[in-house]
Amino acid sequence: MKTITISEAKKDMKKIIDQVKNRGDVFAIGTKKIIDAVIIQFPANRNENLNEITNINANSKSFDFLKYEPDIYSYSDIKKKYA
Question: In whole angstroms, how large is the CA radius of gyration of the chain?
Answer without folding.
Answer: 18
